[in-house]
Amino acid sequence: MSHKSNDSHTVPSQYQDVLHSRIVQNNVVRIEEHLEAMQRDPHGLEFGPWKREVDEIWKSSFERINQMGESSQRSILESIRETWVTYITHYGAVEVKS
């Protein structure tokens, strides 16, 4: 069993994958809430901040996925596929000015 270092603790990689998976799943719930708000008000003042926040949540989520083992990656990617495809289809090419 391989181990990954987490601060001063050593955590078995399978448990690290479970932790990363749960965080990604929680992030996707947050993203879905933002997407719902963005769909209700696509031209409002809050659209830009929502979009930037969702982009950062996705970035953080994919960074966690990259740290996971291959089978865990496949599993979590399958579980977030629908939300990711919806997001990238509707908002992936939308530029938001800072």
Describe this structure as you would to a colleague:
This protein has one domain (14-91). The chain is mainly α. Helix 1 runs antiparallel to helix 2 and helix 1 (13-40) runs parallel beside helix 3. The protein contains 3 helices and 2 strands; from the N terminus they run E-E-H-H-H. The chain has a two-stranded antiparallel ribbon. Strand 1 (3-6) and strand 2 form a beta hairpin. Helix content is 71%, strand content 8%.
Question: Which percent band covers the strand fraction?
Answer: 5-15%
SS-derived structural category: mainly alpha
Question: How many E strands?
Answer: 2
Return the average pLDDT rounded to an integer.
Answer: 86
Number of helices: 3
What is the succession of H and E elements? Answer: EEHHH
**How would you characterize the largest beta sheet?**
2 strands, antiparallel
Give the overall silhouette.
elongated
How large, in whole angstroms, is the Cα Rg?
16 Å
The helical percent reads over 70%
Low-confidence stretches: none
| Tally of distinct domains | 1
Q: If strands are numbered along the chain, what order do they take across the biggest sheet? A: 1-2
* Span of the ends, CA to CA: 45 Å
